């Protein structure tokens, strides 16, 4: 059974790492603010969630009890990331931050 838990922890760390890497590439490579906003809020959140899920599996298995600290971290992460992205987008819209022409949606008149 230890091998199965180790495999699941390794898979969760790898999946979390891949999502975090994709999110950081999105943050660095996407052309405007509104497109760049998706990198850290979507993919990186899943990356950190996968890593914390691996921690939850590992330490719950080692101590033979459910670790609630990791569940609270994931809960707060999944609540605060969309709220912060929404606030950043609203601030950018308020300041009428320039966007690329191929960005979909017209949140304000230009």
UniProtKB/TrEMBL annotation:
GO MF term list: sodium:proton antiporter activity
Stored Pfam families: PhaG_MnhG_YufB
Residues that span the membrane, as ranges: 6-28, 40-59, 71-89
Keywords, sorted A to Z: Membrane, Transmembrane, Transmembrane helix
Record InterPro entries: PhaG_MnhG_YufB
Name recorded for this polypeptide: Na+/H+ antiporter subunit G
Record organism: Alloalcanivorax marinus
């Amino acid at each position: 059974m230890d091998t199965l838990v180790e495999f699941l922890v390794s898979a969760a760390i790898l999946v979390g790492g891949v999502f975090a890497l994709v999110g950081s590439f999105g943050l660095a490579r996407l052309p405007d603010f509104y497109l760049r906003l998706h990198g850290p809020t979507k993919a990186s959140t899943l990356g950190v969630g996968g890593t914390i899920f691996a921690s939850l599996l590992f330490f719950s298995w080692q101590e033979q009890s459910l670790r609630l600290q990791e569940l609270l971290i994931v809960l707060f992460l999944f609540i605060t990331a969309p709220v912060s992205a929404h606030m950043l987008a609203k601030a950018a819209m308020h300041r009428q931050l320039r966007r690329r022409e191929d960005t979909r949606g017209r949140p304000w008149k230009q």
